[in-house]
Amino acid sequence: MELYFINISIFIILFSLIIVWIMWSALIGAGFQPTSMHLVKKMLEMAEIDSNDILYDLGSGDGRIIAQAVKSYGARAVGIEADPIRVLWSTMFLLFYGIKNKSKIKWGNFFNEDISEATIVTLFLGDKTNQKLKEKLVKELKPGTPVVSYSWKFNGWNPTKVDYSNNIYLYVIGESNLNIYN
Ligand SMILES: C[S@@+](CC[C@H](N)C(=O)[O-])C[C@H]1O[C@@H](n2cnc3c(N)ncnc32)[C@H](O)[C@@H]1O
Predict the structure, then answer these.
(1) 134, 154 in Cβ contact below 8 A?
(2) Radius of gyration (Cα) for the chain, nearest Å?
(3) Where are the domains of the chain?
């Protein structure tokens, strides 16, 4: 009987930890759902990325945008990811592809990280998170920096380019947000 209760307790603790792990990212920004590689390419082409760029992917998931930016365009790229397991996984992925020298995955909450060196920012987050991010983007990014968001818009900002069929929006800091933060 005692062993039965120990087993049940271990099960409940493990189950709770898994639920917290799954929910944590969703609570602070967005849950994990990878962008398809086809759309990753569209996002990077829309931003006109090249080898002089430093791309930041806020909530970098499995690191696919980071890897593509480095492998296909020779850019430098930084991912910021809250989930330690995805940080570990994507770092191994970058090592496996031999592109770790041009890329980095930081473990943290992107709201607390300095993103000012970015020349391109990519996002696939959520509606509320996008709206919350606007002030940080305007404060830290240089005018002219493209911000490419898959799926979610920035309310009140005017996108410079839109790919309606794929739901991708490109905003340019200092242009798209003028009516709000000028
Ligand atoms: C929808 S996924 C997108 C993953 C990747 N960018 C892609 O397009 O394939 C969102 C990711 O953002 C991460 N995330 C959510 N809020 C975050 C935050 N505040 N700081 C860092 N990462 C966050 C989640 O853990 C998740 O991996």
Answers:
(1) yes
(2) 18
(3) 37-172
Low-confidence ranges of the chain (pLDDT < 50): 181-182
Looking at residue 180, its pLDDT comes to 53
pLDDT the model gives residue 18: 79
pLDDT digits (tens, 9 = 90+) for 90-105: 999 999 999 999 999 9
- Which residues line the pocket of ligand 1, CB cutoff 6 A? 25, 28-30, 32-35, 57, 59-61, 64-65, 80-83, 86, 109-111, 124-125
* Cβ-count burial 26-38 (b if 16+ within 10 Å, e if not): eeebbebeebeee
CA distances from 92 to 32, 97, 140 (A): 18, 9, 29
Fill in the amino acid letter for 64.
Answer: R
The CATH H-level superfamily of 37-172 is Vaccinia Virus protein VP39 (3.40.50.150)
Cα separation of 62 and 58, whole Å?
12
Element (H, E) at 25: helix 2-28
- Strands, E assignment, the chain: 54-58, 76-81, 103-107, 120-123, 146-150, 161-163, 168-172
